Every structure is written in C-alpha cells, then in structure tokens.
Amino acid sequence: MAAELIDGKLLAQEMKAELKEQVSKLRDKGIIPGLGVILVGDNPASKSYVTSKEKACEKIGIFSDDTRLPEDVSEEDLLRHVERMNSDDNIHGILVQLPLPKHIDENRIINAINPHKDVDGFHPVSVGKMILGQDTFLPCTPHGCLKLLERYDVKTEGAEVVVIGRSNIVGKPVANLLMRKDKPGNSTVTVCHTRTRKEDLLAHTKNADIIIVASGFPNTLTSDMVKEDVVVIDVGINRVVDSSRERGYRLIGDADFESLKDKVRKITPVPGGVGPMTITMLLFNTVKSAQNTIK
Question: What are the structural domains of the chain?
C-alpha cells in the first residue's frame, strides 16, 4: 500500500490564508507587518529563495523592504544596514539571507539583529529561549516540520524519533523541539550524523517511528533502513542530472522516495514537502512579531 503524502504545499496554502486574515486585522489597527530582507551577492539559489519570500509576503499583505548588496560589501556596511532595520518601527522582522561571503562573520551579523525582530530564529537569545521552552521565534524549517507532523496527525508523544543531521539550522533545533514538553513533542530523540557508525545508524532507523532526514546527501535513507509504518520527513533538496528534463536536472531529497513510498506510512515529497513550509513559517514569525507590538 502506498504511503500517504504529507503535502507541504497544500498546508502552506492553508496557513497563508490564515495569516492573510491576521494581517488584515493588524492593518485595521494601523499596523502593516514589515519584513526587512538583506541579500548579499549574486548566488542564484539565494536570489531565487529571496524572490520567493518577497512574493509570498506580497500575497498576504506583508510589506517587504528589499536591500541588495554587492558581494564585496564590507562587514561594517552590512552591519549598518542591519542597524537601520533594527531602528525602523515599520520593520517587524529582519532576514539576512545566508550563506554570506567568506569575508563576513555570519555570527557577528546574526548577533547584531534585534532578537525581537529575529524571525529566522537564529539569534542566540532565540535559540536559548527555544531550549528553555520559552516563547520565542522558532527556526522556520524545524517549525515547519513540526507543523506538518501536527496537521497530518502524527503522534509524537512517546515516539522514537531519529534525526539524521546535526546542523544548527535543522538537525539540532528540530531534535530539541521534539524533546520538549509540548505538543508536538514529548518524543524520545536520537540524533545521527556523519560520524555515526553505519551499523548504529541502521539500528536506530529500523527502530524509529518518525525519521527526519536532513543530511544534505541524496539517498541517505533507503527502504532497507526502515520498518513499515514509519513516518519520514525529508528536509533535503538536491539537484541531480536528468537529461530527460528540459532544465537538465531534477530535484530530489535526502531520502530515496521511490523505494520508501510503498513501505512507509507517511512521507513528504521533494519538492512540495518541507520547502513550502519554510517560507510559510517565516511569514508566521513576521506576523507574530507585528502582533507583539500591540500594547
């Protein structure tokens, strides 16, 4: 029996409709949610991603302040743009698109963002509050994963969860969120990574009820590594050569979708799974930040 598809594109559309209503209520109170976006350089993937975010903002009524800077911009100039957005009351969220050029210290830039406008959830204050279970902006991709589990009625309480990947952007935060005393949450979480022994990885994944794979490599998870009825959330997005496609490539995840779809209970497709949720949760955080300004 084929797995149920966890449709991130559909859920994103539903959540955007809900957010659009919230934005309309804020506008009635004279508050127009604003997102400040800073893009450095001409990285095609980053440009495409930023453009998608700005279009999504426009569709639900969020104002977007778009700042594009050259690849050779100095760290001090970039910090000045961040500070300008920090002090602008019309901007409720600040997004500095990563990665930044090598001559710029990403941590210094992230730390310069006002935590009250940290809609990416990367500031140490946001991370600390997340770990302590306090109200804060949650990082967008992990939060999107949780929303998918929640809306598709995947029980996390008491579940054995394996996270493959330990990045600061996905692996670590999603593991932390699923451990917390909350819903979704209360899971028993194992984090595997590039230094996990292959035989140990197999033992963990075969025992898992939920697997979140965010390794950055295609075919990290295959059907022989899982039990039936497992739920797979595939965070990865990889380009592979495909001469049959007009553009010369196709997008796949970190999980081998074709081998898994007839064995697992539920699975996210790539594209159309976690990806659309990442942008949606950025909008969610921006609207939340605007709501926080109401006295």
Answer: 30-115 (3.40.50.10860), 140-275 (3.40.50.720)
